[in-house]
Amino acid sequence: MSDTLPDVTHHGDATADEGHTPARVEEPLPNPGLAPHQWRPTDVDPKAERRAERQVAGLFLLAILGVVLFIASYVVFQVGDNPDTIGHFGASNLALGLCLSLTLLAMGAGIIQWARKLMADHEIVEMRHPAASPQEDREATVGILQTGLEESGLGRRPLIRNTLLAAGGVLGLVPVIMLRDLGPLPGDKLDHTIWDLDTWTPAEQAWWKTQGRTLQRVVRDVIGTPIKLTDLEVGDLVNAEPEILFAVDDNQQPIVDGTERIAATAKAAVILHRMNPQEIVSAQTRNWSVDGIVCYSKICTHVGCPISLNERTTHHLLCPCHQSTFDLADSGRVLFGPAARALPQLELTVDEQGYLAARRDFTQPVGPSFWERG
Ligand code: FES
Fold first, then answer.
1. For a Cys-Cys bond, which of 28, 52, 179, 284 suits 117, CB 3.0-4.6 Å?
2. Are 216 and 344 contained in the same domain?
3. Are residues 343 and 332 in contact, defined by beta-carbon separation less than 8 angstroms?
4. pLDDT of 216-274, one tens digit each?
5. Which pTM does this prediction carry?
6. Taking CB atoms and a 6 Å cutoff, what residues make up the pocket around ligand 1?
7. What is the rounded distance in angstroms from the CA atom of residue 42 to the CA atom of residue 115?
């Protein structure tokens, strides 16, 4: 044992230490030097080298297989309104994710094996240099800090210092409080909108009685004017809202106002789009349209951005946030992007005076899809 322990010797002036236990100072460990270089089996054995080469190539082939399966999954599995599933998960998303994971894992493992077993194996020594700044730089920095501290008067003004520290501490509460906005989940609050007359307040019902009509009109947003079929040309896209949002009482005050109005607008906003009736693909879209005019929720089913980027000729609607694309000719089907379900369609008709009106509320919840939805 004693051979491996650090050498311990006595130092210092024997006279000065007289009468005391002599000081014992540990010498630094002797420099162990570098161990002799160990050659890897692949450096000295051609068979091992070829084996490693085949392993790396096999991993890269596995990565290629992952890409082939990725493309096949994209083509084979259905998404949209009736997606294929595996367990409770969408088959397409699951398969795409697994195939891409396999590809990336195999690529990474192949590169690591290549570097470990086949790339050049040199040992190099890099001497360590002191990382500390020169003493004069450190003194200058301390001097600058001290001057700043003195000039700010922080030491002489405890009131300011303490209130500043308190303000900084309290500021940390802001993000904590904002976490509260992550919940609660909306539950069934997005299942109905103000397009549904049965959800109206007594004041809204009272106003409706004065109108003497049975169907709520789809009116232009911001200005609230009703829309006739002839107001829209093929290819047009118009932002619209339910007419109750523009109703006023006898004192010209809005019937729906304040936060109720903001929430109702956010849920009930729609877009109208006109196309040639022959271009409509799905039966639902045809049955719920009037002379080629279709109406859809304006709220993206991904995370709820308002949508109105329209491709006139293809009838595709693009969300500017993450590029989800919906087919207005085919029940709002998702064509591209992260949205998981179709854009809810509103059933249109014309009322007694020939204005566009909604037959009923949306039959699907509007807005983003949440995990608790069936
Ligand atoms: S919110 Fe529309 S694609 Fe994300």
1. 52
2. yes
3. yes
4. 999 999 999 999 999 999 999 999 999 999 999 989 999 998 888 999 999 999 999 99
5. 0.56
6. 300, 302-303, 305, 319, 321-322, 324, 337-339
7. 12
